[in-house]
Amino acid sequence: MTRQANPWAALSALCLGFFMILLDTTIVSIAIPGMVRGLDTSLNSVVWVLSVYLLTYAVPMLFTSRLGDRFGPKRVFLAGLFVFTAASLWCGLSGTAEMLIAARAVQGLGAALMTPQTLAFITHLFPPAKRGPAMGLWGGVAGLATIAGPLLGGVLVDSLGWEWIFFVNVPVGVLAIALTLLLVPDWQPKQSHSFDIPGILLSAAGMFLLVFGIQNGQQYDWGRAWGPITVFEIIGAGVVLLVLFLVWQRFNTREPLLPLRVFNNRNFSAGSVTATAIGFAMTGMFVPLVVYIQDVLGMSPSKAGLLTAPMSLLSGIIAPFIGRLSDRVNAKYLVMFGFTALAAGLIIITVQAESTTDPWALVPALLVCGLGTGCVFAPMSNVTMSSVDRSLAGAASGIFNTARQVGGVLGSAAIGVLLQARITANMATQHGNAPVALTDAARETLILPAAVLLLGAVAAMWMKRVAPQGAPTTTTELAAIDRS
Predict the structure, then answer these.
(1) Which DSSP category does 113 fall into?
(2) How far is CA 153 from CA 57, 109, 293, 331, in A?
(3) Helix, strand or coil, per DSSP, at residue 189
């Protein structure tokens, strides 16, 4: 029955849901100033709107990647799509920052249910020789979402208000649910997994406490947060729980959430570090950029989205060519170049940024950032996953994707708190001159993601070249990495 489904029609339905998930990782950044004003809240609260989505998206993914094998990918995808769509409506109706944060947490859970099922369907719907074009379409949707997020977000915020960046998901989600029901086959892998409940609880609690402590440290003046409990004790508890999680994974002989033996592979270990670094930088860099472009340079959200669009467009154009090139040359040099170029672009912006800078003068530096981004993802994924043992491919993919998302969570939290700290300090030294204070704070904050990117480039140096493989085999492995 499942083989009678039209694979391209089914893929189009899955792509619509995937597009919506990725759109919500980029569309919110452009609305940060509007949400601060519209909800009459602090920058820290709005940064939590970003972080909590990434947190509830990343932490459960090692677990949700196994739900599809037990209950069927279509059913889990539909459940996630319904949760995501309903939570989007809740986000738009939220009247307070606290309610919006809660709704975004539920939205992230929906995304976590959907994501691991998506590429697994490509391996089922398309034979190995025909997966290349399907993967190309999938990558094109990701690039389109990256470009459309700031542009669509800017237009919606300018014309209808920040609420509509969430309301727009509702009709799209309803359409995606209908298309998935009609076009996607009810494939049942019928593989039973045991669920590592202690691992799930330890990893979730540890990540939450770590991110909460980092992001809210400035708000509590790095002192007491909950009664006698201090911020540093919260961070320490998070670290302890994560260490206990790793110890449990080491001694769990049944089916650990994080099989540590996959890190015996040198390329996978280095690739996981680079994935964390790029997630940290890509999520964090937009927060100071958007604050500077809108609040200092006075651009509207739609114009700010237009300003950053060439960066994403260039990245999307060159990424397929870099992906093919990574099969012909030592891919680690492409990854190193990408990280270095993205860091260089951010450093150029810190040099250019003044309270009187012409916004369009930033375009060349943003294009350098786009060049760097386009050179990272395909070769990084290729060299990280291509030498992983096939029996560990599903678990390795879950870990690799989670590493990138965890990097995004930490980037959002760390850069958010650093930006707030530098704004407070600079407002005092500049005697209330807000444009200069905000400019200096944005410049100083952008140094952090640039430094993390350079560390990512160093990690990429430890990758070793993978023996070239034939196109069908390479495509099969790349398509199969998201299965569990």
Answers:
(1) H
(2) 21, 22, 15, 35
(3) coil
The bridge status of strand 224-226 relative to strand 229-230 is: antiparallel
* CA within 13 Å, CB half, 254: 10
pLDDT in tens, the chain (484 residues): 444 668 888 888 888 888 888 788 778 878 888 888 888 888 878 878 887 888 888 778 777 877 877 788 889 999 999 999 999 999 999 989 999 999 999 999 999 898 878 767 766 777 755 655 665 566 567 666 766 777 788 888 888 889 999 999 999 999 999 999 998 888 776 666 677 889 888 988 998 888 788 877 777 778 888 889 998 999 999 999 999 999 998 888 777 878 888 898 899 999 999 999 998 998 888 889 988 998 899 998 888 888 988 888 888 788 778 877 877 888 899 999 999 999 999 999 999 999 999 999 999 999 999 999 888 887 887 788 777 776 666 667 778 878 887 888 888 888 888 998 899 899 989 888 889 999 999 999 999 999 999 999 999 999 988 664 443 333 334 333 333 3
224 beta partners? 230
Instruction: Report which secondary-structure segment, H or E, holds 137.
Output: helix 131-159
Contacts of 465 (CB under 8 A, 6+ apart): 330, 331, 332, 383
Q: How far is CA 146 from CA 38, 130, 314, in A?
A: 25, 26, 11
End-to-end CA distance of the chain: 23
Alpha carbon of residue 266 to chain centroid = 24
Measured CA to CA, the distance from residue 76 to residue 58 in angstroms comes to 17
H or E element in which residue 225 lies? strand 224-226
Whole-number Å distance between alpha carbons of 171 and 84: 12
Do residues 275 and 400 touch, judged by C-beta distance below 8 A?
A: yes
Who's near 1: CB < 8 A, 6+ residues apart? 185, 186
Whether this prediction's pTM lies above 0.90 is answered by no
Question: Is 86 within 8 Å of 174 (Cβ atoms)?
Answer: no
From its phi and psi, is residue 330 left (phi > 0), alpha (psi between -120 and 50) or beta? beta
**Any idea which residue has 């509830």 for tokens?**
56
